[in-house]
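Holo model, magnesium ion. Inputs:
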Amino acid sequence: MANSKYEYVKSFEVQDEVMPPNLVLVRIKTRDFRRFSQVHEFEVPNDEKALNLMNSCATAVLEEYPDIVFAYGFCDEYSFIFKKQTKFYQRRGSKILSLIVSFFTSVYATKWKDFFPHQDLRYPPSFQSHIICCASMEVLQRAHSGGKNSTEKRKEVKLNLPLIIFSQVIAETNMILVFGCWSNVEMLKGTQKQEKNELLFQRFGINYKKLPNMFRQGSCVLKTEASSLNLFLLLVEEIVKYNDNDTPVIRPRRKVIIIHLENIAARNFWNAQLCLVKELGCFRQEMNKIKPEYVKSFQFENKLMPFTWIVVRIDGCHFHRFSEVHQFEKPNDEQALNLMNSCAVAVVEELNDVVFAYGVSDEYSFVLKKDSELYQRRASDIVSAVVSLFTSIYVMRWKEFFPQKDLKYSPYFDGRAVCYPSSTILRDYLAWRQVDCHINNQYNTCFWMLVKSGKRKIEAQSYLKGTQTKEKNELLIRQFGIAYDTLPVMFRLGSSIFQDE
Ligand code: GTP
Ligand code: MG
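Output:
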């Protein structure tokens, strides 16, 4: 990003990393699943295709991010755990939760047709995500130290993944409840698991234990650890990145598998998975009796300061590569920018509290009104809703803007929310983004004109090094007959969106 006098606004951005050695867990949930499932006529209580689509998205997440070692999902939610030592984006909460939710959404929208070939997506699916900071073995060990002998200490130490395990308990309870709801909710009040099972059998002839495992137990996604016996079976070759000259770098990766388990809190399951033991630690106790209050204590909510302007800025991830792969025109692709604008308009229309949006290149800033109470100002809900919605619309509208080009892979964005206390500072924030747009665009226009005229990229770079605005304008006129100020205003100054009353 370019330097300008407005850069001071960056100091309003706050740090939000999950401190090690706590484990980072990201939980994703569909926004208004009731409506989404009704509109898309999902079968109740479980739609196998919808669950398989969720599983397929989770698998894609584990394949994309090597640091995620385990995921558990049921119904409309999925939870992802990062390995203990992860340094993924410096463990910044907002970055992580937005990236994962955006990638998940993008894959969901892209793969929809594979799972529902005869049904169109009637509106963009979107998800919300949260970070949960799980106490790891080390944290608990420290908390338990003092006054006890080592055997006692060892007994108490357990790997603490309450949310994941609690989710499975909910999965099962929900399942039984939903079946029951068809008849009479009153009948179910206060009933125990066994009674519900009997009720299902007597009234509906359903043997609960015979229902598909995926429905009853949810799905676990994990990476296999190759042992000497199955080395060749479990390693797959994958492109991990691209070199500067666009040649792929291929490395062997662990294979991602999906399994359904009666009890993911069981020691014998966790401790048998080399990958989980290595990256997360091992279970010393069964973790079945978990109370909801205990789980809730791990969720921290970052509420954004009241009566401040909230700005959610989203930015395309690795769009340098995305624009190369999809052959965007350089330096500006009008259709790509129109697509970004169209997504932003849809977000402004959907979220009433967004009063202004400003976009340039692969980024968009959404300004929420000062007294907004959207999601009670919870940062993760706001950021994830905006980034997920935007991503979903981007994928769904791609063909409208690029009828001749297929989406080669799922694009995704990251997001953050920052509070600005006064309208002057908010204006400076927007000015900062616009100055950035101007400086980058002017530079890129000169750079690509030089390259198109035969200069090598490195030559064009050194040619432009240290040049000021005036010199760049002169260069464009002198060498290429281009008056910079006559170029499309969208390229030079970015795009603004607001409701016209
Ligand atoms: P991260 O955001 O850090 O993941 O990296 P990034 O690759 O997305 O780069 P950054 O956000 O800093 O900059 C956006 C990049 O997207 C630009 O450098 C361009 O390479 C590309 N891009 C955005 N808009 C256009 C466009 O209209 N045409 C072309 N050709 N490229 C574009
Ligand atoms: Mg970017």
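The chain has 20 helices and 13 strands. Residues 114 and 285 are 41 Å apart (CA to CA).
Archived with the compound record.
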